[in-house]
Structures are given as C-alpha cells and as structure tokens.
Write a structure and sequence with these properties.
The chain is of the alpha+beta class. It has 3 helices and 7 strands. The strands form 2 sheets. A 4-stranded antiparallel sheet has the order 1-2-7-6, with no helix packed on it. InterPro entries: CS_dom (IPR007052), HSP20-like_chaperone (IPR008978), NudC_fam (IPR037898).
Length: 188
C-alpha cells in the first residue's frame, strides 16, 4: 500500500503538534547540518560553578548542581567532545542561559531530537539556510561546484564534466591517429 501524501491540514496539524512538543521541552535547540545548539534557562542568581554539564560522545547531562538534570540522555548520533562547549550567559531579562554547543561527528546529518527520549521533529521538513560557496573549504567547494555544473549540464542535455573529459581524450587520440576509423566507436 503506497503512502499517500498528507493533506495541507494534516501537514499543518503535524507541524503544530511538533511545535507544541518542542515548546514543552525544558530547553530550546537549533541545528545546522554540522552542529547543534541547546539553550536552557536557569535562575539569574546562578554562577558557572552552580552549573553541571557532562558531555560524552553519545551522552549529555546538564542542569543545576544538586538538582535533577534539566537535560539528560543519549544522543541519537555521536558528537565530537573536544569541539563541544558550554557557557553560562545572561539574557536581556537578567535570567541566565546555559548555552551548549555540540559539534556533530557526521556533518551531513540532521538530528530528529537532542536526546533519544525527546519527541522527534520531521527532519525532511528542514530547510537548510543557504550556505555560501565561499564558506566552504577549497576541496568541498570544488566538489559542490562540479556537482552544480554537472546538474546544469544534465538539465540542458549536455555532457557532464567527466563525460566531456572522455570526449576530449578521444578527440585528442583521433587527431593523433588520423589513420584509424572511429565512425563506429562507442563511448561508455
């Protein structure tokens, strides 16, 4: 049985339910494809020494010393602990916020939730912020530009960069060997 596309109303209800579930969490979180940020509001009289944050490759525990953790559980995917950090900052309304920055191991994966016990979000609905090509390192940028070029070529019915390279090699070979008949040659 094929899955039918949800109606606009079902879609809106699913988004509303998801938003309500996320709003009910004792923390807020956002993510990019490469990292994830969690913020937990705590009373304004607290200092850094009153906060306990434990970050392991696949586990987090965060909250106020001597109390049950506000956020505790296993990550759905591993993080790089060396590049993950936390700070305690003061919000404009003088409350304090524990800000936790998690560096994802897999930089090509959206997380459905921060910890596996929390309600999931629909990662297929994430619209990534358009990253500028100039933000990418040289090798990644070259790869992305080649993919974009090949995509445009395909749409126009033209050869991709790899196909063009083969055609150029064949053409050069033909020029060097005019005595050979290439009329029945197949390129694959």
């Amino acid at each position: 049985m094929a899955d039918k596309e949800p109606t606009a109303a079902e879609e809106a209800a699913a988004r509303a339910r998801e938003k309500a579930e996320q709003d009910a969490l004792p923390y807020k979180w956002t993510q990019t494809i490469g990292d994830l940020d969690v913020s937990i509001s705590v009373p304004g009289n607290l200092k850094g020494r009153d906060i306990v944050v434990e970050l392991k490759k696949d586990f987090i525990s965060a909250g106020i010393k001597g109390q049950e953790p506000i956020l505790k559980g296993n990550f759905p995917h591993p993080i790089r602990t060396d590049d993950s950090t936390w700070t305690l900052s003061t919000a404009p309304d003088n409350t304090k916020v524990i800000e936790i920055h998690l560096d994802k191991v897999n930089k090509m994966e959206w997380w459905a939730h921060v910890v596996t016990t929390a309600p999931k979000i629909d990662v297929t609905k994430i619209v990534p912020e358009t990253s500028k090509l100039s933000d990418l390192d040289g090798e990644t940028r070259g790869m992305v530009e080649k993919m974009m070029y090949d995509q445009r070529q395909k749409e126009l019915g033209l050869p991709t960069s790899d196909e063009q390279k083969k055609l150029d090699i064949l053409k050069k070979f033909q020029e060097q060997h005019p005595e050979m008949d290439f009329s029945k040659a197949k390129i694959n």
